[in-house]
Amino acid sequence: MAIQDCYLIFRSDRVFYVTISDSKKSQGRIYIKFAEDGIDGERPLHKEVILAIEPDILTSDDSEEMDDLIGYQVVLADQVIGTVSDYFDNSAHHVLVIDGVSGSEVMIPYVDHFIVSVLADLRTIIVQNAEPLLEI
Q1: In the structure, what pLDDT confidence band is assigned to residue 26 with cuts at 50, 70 and 90?
Q2: Could you tell me whether strands 94-100 and 79-89 are parallel, antiparallel, or unpaired per DSSP bridges?
Q3: In Å, how far are 94, 107, 108, 118 from 81, measured between CA atoms?
Q4: pTM for the whole thing?
Q5: How far is Cα 98 from Cα 100, in angstroms, rounded to an integer?
């Protein structure tokens, strides 16, 4: 589900309910354009702005995708380290809960630093940089 309506909250306690008319991603940043007049003139007057959206917008589509990962085996450096048993959202990103082959529980953040690829046809997740998480 795409975000269409949101609130812009400025430090000066000004709040605008706006509609996103266009967006683009460039060099890892997301740029958005608003349909309402006056927002372009208001933004330079303030040092910071908070973009507030409905919480269910962020999680509705992600939950189904994450649910599909339960039961996937997790591989690090050509070695199976366990199976995804659950996940949770820590408000910054999802975290995979993995039942390790040694009987321990391992938690790996679902971010690019750790997740190399998800191979749906093999029901496998390839991870990297997770060695320190396994030592704890």
Answers
A1: confident
A2: antiparallel
A3: 19, 11, 11, 15
A4: 0.56
A5: 6
